[in-house]
């Protein structure tokens, strides 16, 4: 490709509305342009990267035995009604009506459509297992689209679905997909980790997310210092302490605390260790218990894990915090003075709280706390559960080492759905004994457009993007210096361009009449991994100059060796 | 690919609701499935063809210097308001609202989006000419989707757009695109013709359609017997007769014709040659003339060409026929008795009518006609124009030969838009003299999904589809006979499968435990061009059997020669 026939569209300035570095660099490097909130046009440079990402995914899906299909973007509402998601899905599901006023959706995912197709086409266990995938445009009407293509409304996903006669077959394919995902992200040159994920409302037994590690990530991942264990903080188990509860040493006393509305104020004003305080949060209770709200008790320095709380049968889903009015009506006191002592409502205690002694908590009387509370003596310890987010230094649930926390960007998710969809949609086959069997299902997603942004979060410097070879928009760029003044430079550049193309190398030839500085900084911004600079001065010595985008190193390379030199670089 | 890991989904029966052969065969061969009216899922076999079609288009677009981009499916209404198409476009334009009730459309085409992008990114004539294209999902809410993917609501198009500093540059790119389109359809092995097309409401000077010739085509194409001339019948000019009008031989007489409401009845009851009759059609007049309706006069055996009529400045667009009430109110007589004699309203006369003598027409009195009418003597001949569809035998407008008519399926359209969009959207660049110049634009479409169906209309027999090599879902299929009973057959089939894959041949291995007859008829239905049948009987003689899908010929080929034999077939 010659830049003179191309749409380069680099920007000098960082656009104001781009918050994270990948969004800034994708705009500056001329990869994307915003059409409307959450809607982006992929300019040529961006699309070249996206297509390479898609092709790697396609190749590895094919290797894993999945077969490609393509389902419509527009889906009839009837299928979503069958699974109940027409009602359950929030406003992210964009509902539309056609000219005859029939209801449709813009597909945010395709479980319904694929299950409908497979129940019609697959009749016998002999046709199983079957894995199908597509690379298709999806739409999710995010309330606040942000970070460019990282969280856009229209995006491209690879979504695969597998169908099985039994659990064992599902688990085998799930493992194959795990391997394929590792191959995919390795081939893209990304620093990633598969992490345990919550299976949440969809149910199913197994679920792993694939995260690209980056400081801008929206997710927190817990890693073991000593093993392969990694889990989304939503899922990472906080083990119950193994040290026993200390014996009481203090009497329980009622203390006036009019200026202590928060744990921080209480700790400061009364010089308490924060580990000796507890906080009491009220959430809506589920229909399983006879109380409108239920209290969750956490140590003062711990954070509620909302996913763990929501997964408790006693807690209503989606998790909803009680309002101050509801609390005041039922307790007689407001937030800031709540606690377990004398409480008539049910509560669930975090493991870490259950081993505390001589602790402080609200007295359920405005402006008063109890100090020196002890379990058993002052209040009965009821149900104990894992309610909190893990923190760095917690023992790893795998039994080896302690936990570290890092930020990650979710780029993939693999999921054992089980019979969640196949049951409601009656997707069954005849088994070996001639009886009807509901198919087991798995689903496996990769956000293709998001992968592009995540790669940049992990591969950039102050000058721009640094592409891994496999997903670079071009592998090599030729930058001739003042070509339009030097016939020798022009001839050498044209010849090298032809030679590299003949070797099947994906090469950009910057044939613009621009100042060398502009061309070099554009190419660093775009992040092409390998650059050959052709100028009169180095040619006097029989050389071209090779520059590696990642190391920044410049090396003179004899003109006759440059193709081989580049091939060696690309083979690395 | 092994059929055991694949979703073959062939059907024995022809589905009831499929009217044309491509729709029937795409369903039967397991290429597509209907999800809802005008919405189709592409099953693996269909998608393989579609991807090959897309790749051929992509390669030829790249060769023609066009650069690939990708624009969103969902487009903001504001851009459509800028060009006025928000109001002008009918209900085929699906208008939707997002969660914040902001109006969007599902893009049926992307002129607005690309023009917006280019006006933002391109500032100087130095960046021109620029050609951009995408292969993207489109949506057109057809009132009556039909013929499967031939006229579906969601479909995939390649749409290219070119931008230029002047007309000459546009014309040069238009010619390059013409060449690229010929290369594309030639590579696909299709019998196609570029034909002149009407530029209609969009204006612009040049426009050609690319038609695949097939009896089921919705369009009629006029060809010259002696030259390359070809035009959509909408556009094909009916030349004015060169023979002069004959002198009058009859007096004009008023005849009672109570039972002649149609030309056919008039001709039959009064034994008139149909070439001596004229019919009078009334349509709404445009604001350019001072009459609510205007008459169009055609020879009794000729058909009105609605596109030609609509393009006349005196006729309102869109073409609207007057109602019987409107006619009766203004003329005093009804359809069946209309004609030019004594008429107070304006009329336009077709060239063929202008040379008639002694002809019959309605008298503008119910149940009466005039016979023996002559121009000048009985009624003044006013404006004469080309109003009719050409018929076979008409002289070709190119001056060579006469016209033949054939049916075609429009699969592509290239168009010199001029400044239609760039002017309303203020898409301009700085010219060489530093002054702002509105860009000239071209647009170039191919219906990727429709091409697949059109290919089948042209390539099938009673047993199923016959794919050209370049777009076949698989190039070769291996059909082993009773493999599960013969180790020798199985080994030979596995070895051939591996050998063909190693040669980069796209091969399907039918490893199902099916009866040979079922396997053979499935593969003929799917239309794989080259088949190798492996059986004990032919192996006894050291042969495999090669069967060519198109010729139906079976040839024994020595086992050791079969790879070379297939390579030779594929190279043809």
From TrEMBL, chains A, B:
Top-rank taxon, per record: Bacteria
Enzyme Commission number(s): 6.1.1.15
GO molecular function, one term: proline-tRNA ligase activity
Keyword ATP-binding annotated: yes
Family statement drawn from the similarity comment of this UniProt entry: Belongs to the class-II aminoacyl-tRNA synthetase family. ProS type 1 subfamily.
Stated role: Catalyzes the attachment of proline to tRNA(Pro) in a two-step reaction: proline is first activated by ATP to form Pro-AMP and then transferred to the acceptor end of tRNA(Pro). As ProRS can inadvertently accommodate and process non-cognate amino acids such as alanine and cysteine, to avoid such errors it has two additional distinct editing activities against alanine. One activity is designated as 'pretransfer' editing and involves the tRNA(Pro)-independent hydrolysis of activated Ala-AMP.
Cited NCBIfam families: PRK09194.1, proS_fam_II
Entry text on domains: Consists of three domains: the N-terminal catalytic domain, the editing domain and the C-terminal anticodon-binding domain.
UniProt-recorded name of the protein: Proline--tRNA ligase
Name of encoding gene: proS
């Amino acid at each position: 490709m010659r830049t003179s026939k191309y749409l380069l569209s680099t920007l000098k300035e960082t656009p104001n509305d781009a918050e994270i570095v990948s969004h800034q660099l994708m705009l500056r490097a001329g990869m994307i342009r915003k059409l409307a909130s959450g809607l982006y046009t992929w300019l040529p440079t961006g699309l070249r990267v996206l297509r390479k990402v898609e092709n790697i995914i396609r190749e590895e899906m094919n290797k894993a035995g999945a077969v490609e299909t393509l389902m419509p973007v527009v889906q009839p509402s009837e299928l979503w009604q069958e699974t109940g998601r027409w009602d359950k899905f929030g406003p992210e599901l964009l509902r539309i009506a056609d000219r005859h006023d029939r209801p449709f959706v813009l597909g945010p995912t395709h479980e319904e459509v694929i299950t409908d197709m497979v129940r019609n086409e697959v009749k016998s266990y002999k046709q199983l297992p079957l894995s199908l995938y597509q690379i298709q445009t999806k739409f999710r009407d995010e309330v606040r689209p942000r970070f460019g293509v990282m969280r856009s409304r229209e995006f491209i996903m690879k979504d695969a679905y597998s169908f099985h006669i039994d659990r064992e077959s599902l688990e085998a394919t799930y493992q194959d997909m795990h391997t394929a995902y590792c191959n995919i992200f390795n081939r893209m040159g990304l620093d990633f980790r598969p992490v345990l994920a919550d299976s949440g409302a969809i149910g199913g037994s197994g679920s792993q997310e694939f995260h690209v590690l980056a400081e801008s990530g929206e997710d927190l991942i817990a890693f073991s210092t000593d093993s392969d264990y990694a889990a989304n903080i939503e899922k990472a188990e906080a083990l119950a302490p193994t040290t026993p509860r200390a014996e009481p040493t203090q009497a329980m006393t009622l203390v006036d605390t009019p200026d202590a509305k928060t744990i921080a104020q209480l700790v400061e004003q009364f010089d308490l260790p924060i580990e000796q305080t507890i906080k009491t949060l009220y959430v809506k209770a589920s229909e399983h218990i006879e109380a409108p709200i239920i209290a969750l008790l956490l140590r003062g320095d711990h954070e509620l894990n909302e996913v763990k709380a929501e997964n408790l049968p006693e807690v209503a889903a989606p998790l909803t915090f009680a309002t101050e009015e509801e609390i005041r009506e039922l307790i007689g006191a407001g937030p800031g003075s709540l606690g377990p002592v004398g409480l008539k409502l049910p509560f669930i205690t975090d493991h870490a709280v259950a081993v505390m002694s001589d602790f402080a908590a609200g007295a359920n009387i405005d402006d008063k706390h109890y100090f020196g509370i002890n379990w058993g003596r002052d209040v009965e310890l009821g149900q104990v559960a894992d309610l909190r987010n893990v923190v760095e230094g917690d023992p790893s649930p795998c039994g080896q080492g302690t936990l570290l926390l890092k930020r990650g960007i979710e780029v993939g998710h693999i999921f054992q759905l089980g019979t969640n969809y196949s049951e409601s949609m009656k997707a069954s086959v005849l088994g070996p004994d001639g009886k009807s069997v509901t198919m087991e299902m798995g689903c496996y997603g990769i956000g293709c457009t998001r992968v592009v942004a995540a790669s940049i979060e992990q591969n950039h410097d102050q000058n721009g993007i640094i592409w891994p070879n496999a997903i670079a928009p071009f592998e090599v760029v030729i930058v001739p210096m003042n070509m339009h003044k030097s016939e020798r430079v022009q001839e050498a550049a044209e010849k090298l361009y032809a030679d590299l193309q003949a070797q099947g190398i994906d090469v950009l030839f910057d044939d613009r009449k621009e100042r060398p500085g502009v061309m070099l900084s554009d190419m660093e911004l775009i992040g092409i991994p390998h650059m050959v600079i052709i100028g009169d001065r180095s040619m006097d010595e029989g050389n071209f100059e090779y520059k590696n985008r990642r190391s920044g190193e410049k090396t003179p390379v004899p003109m006759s060796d440059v193709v081989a030199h580049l091939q060696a670089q690309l083979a690395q």
